[in-house]
Amino acid sequence: MKKYVRLLNEYESLKDKIMQQDDKFHDGMYYDIMGFWEEIDDEDRPIDELESQVKACRSLLKGLKGLNYTFC
Question: How much is the pTM?
Answer without folding.
Answer: 0.81
